[in-house]
Amino acid sequence: MLGAGIVSEVFDFRGQGLPRFDFALCTDRPGRVRTDVGLPLVVEHGLDRLASADLVIALPWNDFRTPPAPAVLDALTAAHGRGALVAAHCVGAFALAAAGLLDGRRATTHWRFAGLLAERHPDVTVDPDALYVDEGSVATGAGAAAGFDLCLHLLRREYGATTANAIARDLVLPSHRDGGQAQYLATPVPEDSQDERLSEVLAWAREHLHEPLPVAELARRALMSRRSFARRFAASTGTTPHAWLLGLRLSRAEELLETTDLPVEEIAHAVGFGSAAVLRAQFVRRRGVPPRSYRRSFTRTSTV
Fold it and tell me: Which of 134, 219, 239, 281 could form a disulfide with 179 if both were Cys (CB 3.0 to 4.6 A apart)?
């Protein structure tokens, strides 16, 4: 039920210049479907609806240890074969794996079942820590609320950061979470006020991206040694300060490329890269295209 709720919320039509999606739930046996919380869900569409879909997302189901019906696997394979983007949320990845769509690719699923996915499908490289994995024509997401991370990533990839951020804001969600599943495997009670200080420092860093922001300065503001800061940072975010800042700077650069006419050189300085050359190198490495190409792809020239 959570999976169905996530995708229906993200791809709901909101107006205000945002994309309009033709959203539908499908099943191999249309009619009343009993959900994991006991509430029945009426699904009107059969697998034939997948024949015209641009995006197909396999949702988790209780009996995921048993492969889906052959008709389901055939429909997923056919959708992928004709060029649709095929994705999976949580243990929905088992359906994509059974269809052979993950062979030779990286994938993720709920951390609790990552070992089982790797055991059953040795041709799949399972990353148990990732919140989502994008392999181009196939994408997979981790469990539960990470379905939002996957869907927002797909929106950001196809429509740009401005659209993804607007929908995330409407859902009262961060448009992008840093780190991986490991940070959510345990939630110890903080022993002191260090976590609160860390949150304050991260909020300060977001407002000062144009500055160098060395780790030593962040640690000083958090009243920690550099080593303690790095350890606390990794425990709280699942990543390093450098990687976190890099992702933040690239995301902000995307927004400025989409929503302003600022020269790339000015954007580079505004987000802390120092020069257009450095921004371009990081953009190409992380996004696959140079900033100017990204701007041409995602600048809004008309209302969607």
Answer: 239
Q: What is the pLDDT of residues 69-89, one digit of tens each?
A: 999 999 999 999 999 999 999
265, 274 contact by CB (below 8 A)? no
Q: At what angle are helices 241-259 and 291-298 packed, to 10 degrees? A: 50
pLDDT tens-place string over residues 198-232: 888 988 999 999 999 999 999 999 999 999 999 88
The DSSP-derived string for 229-276 is HHHHHHHHHSS-HHHHHHHHHHHHHHHHHHH----HHHHHHHTT--SH
Residue type, 118: A
User: Which among 177, 236, 178, 245 is positioned nearest to 211, based on CA atoms?
Assistant: 245
199, 233 Cβ separation under 8 angstroms: no
C-alpha distances in angstroms, 145 versus 72, 109, 163, 229? 25, 12, 20, 27
Q: Is the pTM of this model over 0.85?
A: no
